[in-house]
């Protein structure tokens, strides 16, 4: 079955760019939607944005100005860039497959998550 | 502040039934968008629990059930077991253009 694994720096300085990559194994990235979701420590979940394998994207309006999600189908990977980070961006970042069917969307499966701390 | 509102915590004794509410508005649940539910066990990633309003992934016991009314959705867990302890999240779509989650409910099995 499909498995996802996040990778990237665990510490980012304020005002810099957070970059993470999600590697998809056990299945192809083609023909599906892929999302990033984050969870600040002790808090709830926030959807960041998705990318379709073809490269089309859709972002959370609250983060849109700072987010870029890209895909590399040759490597079965997709990536997240979040610019101008602050301490409020400290969170566990999850990648997930966004399942789209009959006009509804859910997230399954999820990666194990990557904690990113924003601190100088 | 989450778009969907859940109670911070619920608890119940083994064997009992508990219900977790998820309250939204006319721009998400009230607009007819489906509600999905996730379970997050301690120190793990969220896992899909129920999707498409009432569908369970294979292997999930029928102790978990859902319902929906107006701008709210509900997750009921009957025959509580110790392994049910964890956080539960609801998720829907909001017409502002974003998929949204509840703030999560911590279930404690007494």
Task: Give a structural overview.
The complex is a heterodimer of chains A (120) and B (110). Chain A has 120 residues and is mostly beta strands. Chain A has strands spanning 3-7, 11-12, 18-25, 33-39, 46-52, 57-59, 67-72, 77-82, 91-101, 104-110, 114-118. In chain A, strands 2, 4, 5, 6, 9, 10 and 11 form a 7-stranded mixed β-sheet that branches. Chain B is mainly β and 110 residues long. Helix content of chain B is 0%, strand content 45%. In chain B, strands 1, 3, 4, 7, 8 and 9 form a 6-stranded mixed β-sheet that branches. The radius of gyration of chain B is 13 Å and the shape is globular.
Q: Mind sketching the topology for me?
A:
The complex is a heterodimer of chains A (120) and B (110).
Chain A: E1 3-7, E2 11-12, E3 18-25, E4 33-39, E5 46-52, E6 57-59, E7 67-72, E8 77-82, E9 91-101, E10 104-110, E11 114-118
Parallel strand pairs in A: 2-11
Antiparallel strand pairs in A: 1-3, 3-8, 4-5, 4-9, 5-6, 7-8, 9-10, 9-11
Chain B: E1 9-12, E2 18-23, E3 36-40, E4 47-50, E5 64-69, E6 72-77, E7 86-94, E8 98-101, E9 105-109
Parallel strand pairs in B: 1-9
Antiparallel strand pairs in B: 2-6, 3-4, 3-7, 5-6, 7-8, 7-9
